User: Fold Sugar ABC transporter ATP-binding protein from Actinoallomurus iriomotensis.
Amino acid sequence: MKVSLEEVTKVFDGGVTALDALSLEIQDGEFFALLGPSGCGKTTLLRTIAGLETASSGTLRIGDRDVTRVPPGARDVAMVFQDYALFPHMTVADNIAYPLRIKKVGRAERRAKAAATGEGLSLGGLMERRPAQLSGGQQQRVALARAMAAQPTVFLLDEPLSNLDARLRLEARTFLKKLQHDLGVTTVFVTHDQAEALALADRIAVMESGRIRQLGTPREVFQRPANVFVAGFIGSTPMNLLAGECVPGDGETATSWGHQIDVAGVRLPVPEDIVTELTPGDKVIVGIRPEYLTESEDGIKGTVEIVENLGTTSLVTLTTTGPSVQLTVPEGREPEPGATLHVTPAPGRLLVYRADDGELIDAP
Ligand code: ATP
Assistant:
């Protein structure tokens, strides 16, 4: 089912505005991530869809039905909480089968569905245990299985994988994606882990202070962050964000196109598609991911300060006359600390933001 929010605002007692006139449409069958820093309103948005919070104003629809004031039990949604909320006196099998019992599914079918879902989450050998006899990670998988077994029309997950250890987390992630794909149930999940959002979601809403700062596919959000907030938030290594100014071109290169961007005394070409959007004197912030900075003859000059091993690449921090700049280099190509490097953005990889409002300058 589709989930739509129209100008939904949630003000808590005490005056905190957790959701600020937020509008959003989540498509039927979509795997949708709510991502953002602590306190941005992700959980409140999820709980509002679940019916555990009521919007102060605005309209929430599931399918075509207005559920803004409908209680949680009548919404046909299933939510997995961060703290599991399992029934302590029931076995794992009975916990997983519980929502099916509520739906009056027959005993044999209940057991078969619970067993299949439990198996998928590696709970096969634990079906007769009680929650207190499980680790935190196992309890969380039971909570996931319980919500999945019920096959709701909307599936809501609050940081579903946060208590799993790193390896299990990857396994559960793959399983979750496959299951969601197979079931085709609209799924909204909250995470503050951007790698998880990028890996799982069809689309991501990046939130800040009760608003959506960007809505897009993982690729869009990663490749073209819509503003400096998203640019600074997304990426396993933070994007370089450097102050610059549009200046008249020196005419020395074919790419000067009448004007260039001066960053710490180095002239960078204005991306071709936004040439008409910039005028000399405009203050900008250029964004370059560390992965897209390469060593060059000229370009931004810096001294190697720190080299951090990331596995197949290393992250090199350069001190410059301005802010420090980071780039990744392939394994075995690390420069020595103290060395002087010149770096330049790979063609087509420079993003330009307006300094005044931090918004991406896009092609007209
Ligand atoms: P986190 O990642 O830390 O869980 P979040 O993005 O999920 O954060 P929310 O829990 O939705 O954020 O909180 C959004 C804002 O609303 C925060 O400022 C929080 O302090 C406030 N808030 C949340 N619940 C309540 C409540 N019951 N009463 C008052 N304020 C609340």
Q: What stands out?
A: The radius of gyration is 25 Å. Residues 240-354 form a domain with the OB fold (Dihydrolipoamide Acetyltransferase, E2P) fold (CATH 2.40.50.140). Residues 3 and 26 are 5 Å apart (CA to CA). The longest helix spans residues 166-183.
